[in-house]
What does this fold into?
Amino acid sequence: MILGIVGSPRRNGRTNQLVERTLEGAASTGVAVQRIFLLDFDIRPYTEEHERGPEELSRLCEEADAIVLGAPVYYGDINGLTKDFMDTVRISNANGKCALGISMAGGTGKGLVSAIQSIYHFFYHRQLRGIDPTPVSRFNYDEALGSLYASGRRLAELSRVKKPFRDLAEVIEHHQGLPYMGYDFVEEILLLAEQLLKTSKSPEVARPEYEAAKVLIAQGKRQEAVAYAVKAYMTLYY
It folds into this structure.
């Protein structure tokens, strides 16, 4: 069974739709899927007196062969409800279990990478085998719906064979090699500019700055790249 976890307090919002699309892809391979909403559970912040979340929630995660976790972006990172879940859930058989994370940023889109990194840091610390990190903004939302269907199919296929990590070194090597894990602020803005270029009616007005930023980053001149990346993003966004 593939478990889809919706971290947004909005049941019919974009985060839910992204998780649902991923589960549709998984279900197309013949596996069973289940979707749950964190809003339906009594999840409290981690304290010394309250170290564990709801037993039912931990049980569902343990019974699942793979997990999809979607969270909205609030002020540059995942929302508090999802963070409290990550702090308090217990998954005794997590080692090597496949997991896919989705961040959904509205408005300016900023924070979509920081949020996806938070989700995959959780996967890393719990030794879940993260695949296909998917940072989403309203600029690439439709594209993400398509890619997540394919990711759901891949997740289902990978979940058929258990593959625990040998040791901590393998856990680090796996997660460090995933897309977006090494992104900083300038690369996040450049990613948003790239998403806007694909949907803009006049992408040529910002393409020179976008390309200049990419060249400077490739040369290791990250500070110099900031102005070009921001101009490309601001030109298209505004």
